[in-house]
Amino acid sequence: MRRLMNVRWIATALVILLLSGVCVELGRWQLHRLDARKARNEVTRTNLAAPAAPLAEIVGPQRVIGEQHDWRTAVVTGRYDASKQVVMRYRNVNDRPGFEIVTPLLLSDGSAVLVDRGFLPKQGGELAPSSIPAAPTGEVTVTGRLRRSERGGHTSGGTPDNGTARLINGPDFAPVLGLTLYDGYLTVEQQVPAADPAFGGFPGPEIDDGPHFFYALQWFFFALLAIGGLVYFSRRDVTGDNASTDSESEAPAESLPSATTATGAPRGPGGS
């Protein structure tokens, strides 16, 4: 028992309990992410089913495409400004690498919205698309899905550099392009005049619960495993200490003296 309660055992137990607590919190965090994903999926389903509406009517004067607008179908009319077109690098659609072409659409109120006109598959090892379909001239009506601005932490991928970027981000594009842009963008579903057939479309959203529930179970299992290991080895130490104490308390039996004569010969009956 003395060995069980020494400083090293206490320190080890505290570390195991701390790790178990961390595992539990990570499991709870995954469950929170699951709840958030379910709520987002419900918004997405509602937006996908909603009828198309004018962009300004959906977003409002703030010009911010938020989570509540994601995947909503919007209609907008304007003129493409091909001189401020941006090639999006390192894009991937259906596991195929390529580029996306984003062109600002100038609106009648003086603002503009970024329009992702489509995907161009990468040909070999090219670093830029060999040819880009020209944007239609004149008035264009675009029907497409609203998407929030892409953000990548502290990276500068959302700032166009020499006509290319990695993230589609309205606030980052605005000062470089010199436009009053919506915070967000639009992916083309239909366009009048029609979009160039060289452009590939985009897949719809993934509406599922993801792996969060199973990740949570894994973290909770790790916590139980750590606590179970602590209990098991503690009991083994206690059992070992008790067995050691019992064996030390047993004294060796003394040899009994044999009934022998002084000369070592046993006395018989009637002997003298």
From TrEMBL:
Membrane topology category: Multi-pass membrane protein
Membrane-crossing residue ranges in chain numbering: 213-233
Top-level taxon of the source organism: Bacteria
Alphabetized InterPro entries for the sequence: Surf1/Shy1, Surf1/Surf4
One Pfam family per UniProt: SURF1
Annotated CDD domains: SURF1
Keyword Protein biosynthesis: no
GTP-binding is among the record's keywords: no
Region (Disordered): 240-272
Compositionally biased tracts (Low complexity): 250-266
Location in or out of the cell: Cell membrane; Membrane
Keywords: Cell membrane, Membrane, Transmembrane, Transmembrane helix
PROSITE patterns from the UniProt entry: SURF1
Family the entry assigns: Belongs to the SURF1 family.
Name of this chain's protein: SURF1-like protein
